[in-house]
Each structure stands twice: as structure tokens, then as C-alpha cells.
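FORM 12-B: Structure-to-Sequence Request
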């Protein structure tokens, strides 16, 4: 059964409370460089958790990282950049086929913006290839492809109907409805929990019959190819990935247009303090945040209060943009992570509100009190 990537990452995105270590490592294939990055993570984490953990707790917390540091075979097996996620009870290492900024953050939740960007730009897809009596289902991304399952139809998808009315009659080849129904049931079992975009390759008559009976919301039309065999897989995947990449760019352009339209109708906000208030109130339907930029401080999800720090001060500090994104997701909203250049006018966050008629009671212009040491505070 195919699982949606979001569901596999959900425990990371929703985890909060207590000490959370997030580290992103750039992997160039140089084992020594990768190990040096792991050591830097250990050193930085040790200094940040020292005030809140006993020596034994600290040693146990860092134990999986030290084991990772000594596991040359495991580190060599990671093909892409690396994400490390650690709490006192969990430890997870991910291979991330997206660009990341090397760094380590200790906070009360994970730093997940790179994961959210990964989900947007590297969408899963399905390739269904039908050849003779066999259907093969593959699950792919921009960087990988694996065979999910094979479905065999003993009598084949086609059958021949002979015409006996005259000696000159010609036999007719038709698609077997039972074979199509069995194929649809097989697909349904594998896509019950997740429905990535489905590309189909094979005999046009079989594909047409499948399209007429299959109720699949993400079926790509027309078929990617009128034939299928194993040797075609690389070229088919190249074409699919190109289509998805173009679609990702187009999707982002549509999202920006949606935000601009909402702003014209006073239902969008770019002010970080107004956004925080709206997020706490559950009024943000869609949030766009800048990747590669961190605003350290603290966000109170109950009141919308913000405390902004000039740098990462302690284990309770986190990237406020990251915290806002997690809260929006927890309340059922949508989050889009984009480069700073893709957000007009250089803003770091952009929020689409659910109730545009209701004005937020708080704005920077109306008088935001300032705390000591350059900290901005919203009560």
C-alpha cells in the first residue's frame, strides 16, 4: 500500500514540547566532510542542552548521533543531503533530495521548512505500465523509482471476437471488461491511503477502457505512451519528471497570483505580527513563508504573542516562521515554502485569511511595545 509522504513526515511536523534537535547536513559524497558536520552538531547540541539536562540525560540524548558518527557504512549509503531529527524518545535520519543550508537548531519543535519545501517540489507520482498480460505499478519521485507491484491477467486484457456470418468476415479484438475491473480493484488497494498523480502507458485500447471506468482524481490525460516495456522506463520517467517540474513552477505562480488577488481585497497580510495574531486565532487558510531565512524568537500559539531575538539564544528559541507554519498545519491550513525571491517585495511571510471582513485589532503602526535589549514584543 502506498503511503503519502506527508503522512510519513507528520510525526516530525507535529512534534512539540521538550527538547528537539534538528540538523541539516550538506552531502557532497565526501565522508570526512559529512562526519565533520555530524561532530559539529554533537558539539553544538551538547552546549545547548547542558543547562536543561543532567549529564546522564545528555549522554543518552547524544548517543544516537555518536553512533551515526561512527557508522561509515550508513553515512556512505546516504545519497542526498541529510536531515537529523532527535527528541529524548525518538531519532530519525532522512535522505533529502533538496538543497539545504547546513545548520543545527535545538528548540521545542523541529525545524521543518525544508521538509515542507521537499513535499512541494518533489511530488510522488505513479507509473502504470501495461504490457501484454501484465500490469506493473511504479512509485517515483524526481530522484527515485521503485516497483510497487505486478498484476497478471491470465487471459490477457484483450480478446478476439470472430464473426461467422460470412466467409469474408473479420475477427474483432476487444478489451475484456473483467480484466479492466480487476486492474481497477488492484489499483484501488494500493492507492487507498494516497493518490499521487497517475501516468499510464500501454495499448491505447486498454488505456481508453481503463480511463472510461477508472475514477481516479489525479489521472494524467492523455496517456504518457501508446506502448510499454522495461526499456522505456528511463525515457518515460524523464518526461514525467519534466512535466511535474513545470507543474510545480506553474503551481507556485498561481499561488502568488491568489495571494495578490486576496491582498487587493484586504484578505491577506504580510506583517509578521498581524500574521502571528491571525495564526493564533485560527484565521489563516494558507501561509507562504520564505525558505533559507530564520527569524529566531518565540511564538505563543494561544495569544499570538511574538518575541523576536537577534539570534538563537537558547533551546527554547526557534525559527518563528517555522513555528507559524506548524501551527497553521495543525489547524488544518496549508503552508507553502518558497524562496525569498518568490515572495513579492522581499517579505518573509504572507498569509491568506479566512475571514477578510474582520480586521485584526493589532498592528505595528498602532503601537507595538518594545522590550529591552532590542526585543520586539507583542502582548
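FORM 12-B RESPONSE
SEQUENCE OUT:
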Amino acid at each position: 500500500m502506498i503511503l503519502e509522504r506527508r503522512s510519513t513526515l507528520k510525526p516530525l511536523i507535529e512534534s512539540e514540547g521538550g527538547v528537539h534537535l534538528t540538523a541539516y547536513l550538506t552531502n557532497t559524497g565526501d565522508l570526512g566532510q559529512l562526519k565533520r558536520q555530524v561532530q559539529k552538531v554533537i558539539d553544538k547540541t551538547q552546549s545547548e542542552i547542558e543547562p536543561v539536562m543532567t549529564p546522564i540525560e545528555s549522554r543518552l540524548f547524544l548517543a544516537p548521533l555518536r553512533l551515526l558518527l561512527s557508522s561509515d557504512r550508513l553515512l556512505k549509503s546516504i545519497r542526498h543531503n541529510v536531515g537529523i531529527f532527535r527528541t529524548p524518545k525518538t531519532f530519525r535520519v532522512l535522505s533529502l533530495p533538496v538543497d539545504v543550508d547546513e545548520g543545527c537548531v535545538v528548540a521545542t519543535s523541529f525545524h521543518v521548512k525544508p521538509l515542507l519545501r521537499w513535499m512541494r517540489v518533489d511530488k510522488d507520482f505513479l507509473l502504470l505500465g501495461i504490457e501484454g498480460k501484465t500490469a506493473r505499478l511504479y512509485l517515483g519521485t524526481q530522484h527515485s523509482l521503485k516497483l510497487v507491484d505486478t498484476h497478471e491477467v491470465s487471459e490477457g486484457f484483450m480478446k478476439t471476437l470472430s464473426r461467422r456470418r460470412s466467409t469474408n468476415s473479420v475477427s474483432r479484438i476487444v478489451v475484456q471488461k473483467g480484466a479492466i475491473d480487476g486492474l481497477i480493484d488492484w489499483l484501488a488497494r494500493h492507492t487507498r491511503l494516497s493518490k499521487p498523480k497517475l501516468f499510464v502507458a500501454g495499448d491505447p485500447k486498454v488505456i481508453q477502457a481503463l480511463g472510461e471506468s477508472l475514477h481516479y482524481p489525479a489521472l494524467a490525460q492523455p496517456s504518457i505512451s501508446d506502448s510499454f516495456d522495461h526499456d522505456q522506463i528511463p525515457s518515460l520517467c524523464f518526461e514525467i519528471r519534466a512535466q511535474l517540474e513545470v507543474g510545480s513552477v506553474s503551481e507556485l505562480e498561481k499561488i502568488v497570483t491568489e495571494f495578490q488577488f486576496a491582498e487587493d481585497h484586504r484578505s491577506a497580510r504580510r506583517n509578521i505580527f498581524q500574521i502571528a495574531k491571525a495564526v493564533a486565532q485560527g484565521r489563516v487558510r494558507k501561509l507562504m513563508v520564505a525558505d533559507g531565512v530564520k527569524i529566531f524568537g518565540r511564538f505563543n500559539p494561544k495569544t499570538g504573542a511574538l518575541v523576536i531575538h537577534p539570534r538563537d539564544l537558547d533551546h527554547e528559541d526557534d525559527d518563528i516562521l517555522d513555528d507559524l507554519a506548524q501551527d497553521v498545519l495543525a489547524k488544518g491550513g496549508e503552508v507553502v515554502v518558497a524562496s525569498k525571491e518568490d515572495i513579492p517585495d522581499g517579505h518573509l511571510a504572507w498569509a491568506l485569511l479566512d475571514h477578510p471582513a474582520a480586521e485584526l485589532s493589532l498592528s505595528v503602526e498602532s503601537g507595538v511595545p518594545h522590550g529591552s535589549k532590542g526585543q520586539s514584543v507583542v502582548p
